[in-house]
Amino acid sequence: MFLRWLEATILDFGDEMHKVYMWIWSSGDLGLRLLWHILHLILSTWYFIIGLMGSVESFLISSGLFKRYRDLDISKVQYLAVAIDSDEALQTLKVLELLRWLEAIGLRKVCLYDTAGVLKKSKEALTLLLKNERMSSETASDPLVEEKCLSLEVISFSDGKQAVAKAADVLLKKHYLSSNTEKPKLTESDMTDALGAIGYREPDPDLMLIYGPARCHMGFPAWRIRYTEILHMGPLKSMKIGALIKAIHRYTMVHQNYGT
Amino acid sequence: MKNIPPILETPKPLHFPDLAAMAAFSLPLHSSFTPSPFKPQLFRHLQRLKLAPHARPPVLSCGSNAAAVTGPTGNEVVVNGIPPDYYADGGSVQLPPSLQRELMPNHVAVIMDGNRRWAGSRNFPIVFGYEAGFRAFKRLIELACNWGIGTLTVFAFSSENWCRPKAETDLLMGLFERILRFELEHFMRENIRISLIGDATKLPKQLQSLLVDAVEATQNNSRLHLIVAANYSGRSDVVQACRKIAFKVKDGLIDPNDINEYLVERELETSCTDFPHPDLLIRTSGELRMSNFLLWQLAYTELYFTNALWPDFGESEFLEALCSFQQRQRRYGGNL
User: Fold this and answer.
1) Same domain for A57 and A159?
2) Residue B116: closest CA among chain A residues belongs to which residue?
3) DSSP B218
4) A chain contacts of residue B31, beta-carbon cutoff 8 Å
5) Which of A84, A179, B80, B323 has its CA 20 to 30 A from that of A145?
6) Residue A119 shares a structural domain with residue A237
């Protein structure tokens, strides 16, 4: 709480300090300007250290030094969803690198999502690049190659609320637009079946990782995230494999009671 | 459940993630210190999370009924739906210094999780946990009123909670009845409107009656709209919306070709408020999921997960959540 108060106080004075700096700069006082640059150096060093600590932690985790991260029970993550901000999803190489990491960790079913459908356009390229890398690194006769393939589902905003509206239409035709005057009672299973009938049969993700500036799931299909664990990972360009392993490890340690 | 250290959600003070978060939040200070010709190359990629007053973007809101204006880029953006003159009345809204009026959320949703764990950690009976949770609930309502939050939705009882032991569910139903009986006068005095979402038909008859009376008695109150989700399921909410649409089609009120997501949204139970989409969701007790709460409505809601158990969620925790909300960027499927 103290840190938050300190942060808020510092931010409130931020612009005032900028005005003070401009006054110092225009006043020509070398001593004050030197003090200013010293303060700037201290802050820069602080940020550098923070960044370095993050990189070191990520390196240590990815190098397998920590036993708990080395012995990751990946079987608990049957289906992983990755929601990426549409602007950041344009970084196809970064997305490819993320998929490579997920495949290396041992995940087999991944759902990629972005609001605008950018990932749908690059799905073919991503799948092809992953396949080529796999073929070049594995022997052609390796019978386990197919088992190690990452199964990729790519969806966008239209697969969420719009899909539910289409499913509502299916339910209407099936249950209500008949001569039978009795009004049937719809259930969640009926909706799930209707979504399946229009092509949405994939399971609910166990874990969702969000890459982007905002800590929201950006319209990921609401029907599928009833009990999904949600973790915000920060910007895609700053992604680290250590943070990814840490997030998955955290999920494997969670116990869900599903409301009971 | 194992005691899991926080990693990527809202950090505790002095832990590594919190240092990183604090460093990031302090960037505006760093940037404002730096003259424009000189920016450290190392940090150019970091975004300013808070802009100077003259450069602040319009506040974004999920409220579908909020007014739309043209933003600085010429694109239409949605502005905070609370009318400007609401905050001009300084006597009714008194914010702590660390909060900004123009960045306050319209609608806050809360998953009040952790009552049983709170009691268990103190070797208390479960009833003590729920009683403490009720006191935290009262504190939250008071804060929401004092800080000018228009709508507060609380997840009181999930449809999945019926799987709990009958003694516990009876205890909860009794607690709800007691709250309604003894707090209704307070709600009237504080000008709080109560609405209920969820399938009330499965609640005890007496509780149903009390709820109906409370909703009717407070329907004209306007200071705070308190939406209580009891026996609520996000999926069931969507299903009942589809059912209503089907009835309207059968009655000739809607053309089947007009069924779209906006129609579904209009029939959801949260359409009782002008701001059906929460701006901020707070979940206590360290769980990082929505647990079937407001699934449809939370598409662009800021998610705030805190390790504090619900009975321990007080003014400082709520302030921290609101500060965190005010400092985050918010995107609505488009560019800022």
Assistant:
1) no
2) A260
3) T
4) 14
5) A84
6) yes
Burial environment of residue B150 by CB neighbours within 10 A (0 to 12, 13 to 18, 19 or more): buried
Check: pTM over 0.90? Answer yes or no.
no
For A170-216, write each residue's pLDDT tens digit: 998 888 776 565 666 789 999 999 999 999 999 999 999 999 998 99
Three-class secondary structure of residue A7 per DSSP: helix
What is the extent of the structural domain holding A202? 73-137+147-253
The residue out of A65, A96, A115 marking a domain boundary is A65
Domain end marker among A43, A65, A87: A65
Are residues B30 and A44, on separate chains, in Cβ contact within 8 Å? yes
- Indicate if A108 and A212 belong to the same structural domain: yes
- Tokens at A61, concatenated: 């985790």
Which H or E run includes B107? strand B107-111
A39 and A158 fall within a common domain:
no
Say which of B85, B89, B113, B258 is annotated catalytic: B113
Give the number of domains in chain A.
2
Question: B238 vs A186: CB contact, 8 Å cut-off?
Answer: no
- Chain A residues with CB under 8 Å of B107 CB are none
How are beta strands A151-155 and A109-113 bridged, if at all?
parallel
Whether residues A163 and A194 fall in one domain: yes
Is B251 catalytic? The answer is no
For residue B247, the chain A residues in CB contact (below 8 A) are 176, 183
Kindly report the CATH number assigned to the domain that includes residue A116.
Answer: 3.40.1180.10
Query: Looking at this predicted complex, what is its ipTM?
Result: 0.79
Quick: pLDDT tens for B116-133: 999 999 999 999 999 999
Q: How far is B305 from chain A (nearest CA, A)?
A: 10
Contact predicate B192/B141, CB 8 Å: yes
